[in-house]
From TrEMBL:
Name of the molecule in the record: V-type proton ATPase subunit a
Compartment(s) of residence: Membrane
Keyword Repressor: no
Tagged with keyword Transport: yes
Record function comment: Essential component of the vacuolar proton pump (V-ATPase), a multimeric enzyme that catalyzes the translocation of protons across the membranes. Required for assembly and activity of the V-ATPase.
Lipid bilayer topology: Multi-pass membrane protein
Family: Belongs to the V-ATPase 116 kDa subunit family.
Assigned keywords, A-Z: Hydrogen ion transport, Ion transport, Membrane, Transmembrane, Transmembrane helix, Transport
InterPro entries recorded: V-ATPase_116kDa_su
Organism of this sequence: Datura stramonium (Jimsonweed)
Membrane-crossing residue ranges in chain numbering: 25-48, 77-99, 201-222
Amino acid sequence: MNLGIILSYFNARFFNSSLDIKYQFVPQVIFLNSLFGYLSLLIVVKWCTGSQADLYHVMIYMFLSPFESLGENRLFWGQSVLQVILLLLALVAVPWMLFPKPFILKRLHTERFQGGSYGRLGTSEVDIYEEPDYARQHHHEEFNFSEVFVHQMIHSIEFVLGAVSNTASYLRLWALSLAHSELSTVFYEKVLLLAWGYDNLIIRLLGLGVFAFATTFILLMMETLSAFLHALRLHWVEFQNKFYHGDGYKFNPFSFASLADEED
């Protein structure tokens, strides 16, 4: 009962109707966790076990050869069976978020506006007071099924492709760490060790000074700023667009001047 109350509040607070939960939120969560949530699990398991498994190989052949033996890339017992189940869930989630909602909206529109039904619909779980924005905005207009279906198709394709491309975009942080490691190796071998190979104290001190300058201002300051900016961009563009949609009300700050203008 408490779970039902929580879901009802969650639905009223963040969604236009229960259709958004059943046919958008739930399949999207299943799709993300079946693929990228599983990848996060593999990363944690690899860290904890010290395995030398190639996670790129695991994820790629999860799609190309789901029934093939993992071999040395096997991280835990039952991994092959789990990957097949997760792949099937991800494949089912795509038509789940694509097809049901437009047909249900069409049926609700037919029952409410053409059949003259009011109150709670006997064949639907959706309350008329929770009907989607589309139905409320087109109260006296003909229901355009093709427009709704195309909109839902674009939304579904954008989510699937965006989930893959946005997650892959996080590889830029790995590239930054690789570049940082290579720069550290270059400064250490070509500056510090090279200068330390001379018997001249002045050359050694000069090499130590150059290495300290490069470490402080290039490796620490510039690389830290670069990693911060990339992480900020990834959070704003790739991560936040999964949750934020700018389709609400424009913020209008309180002002006494605006009140005076309205009175005039």
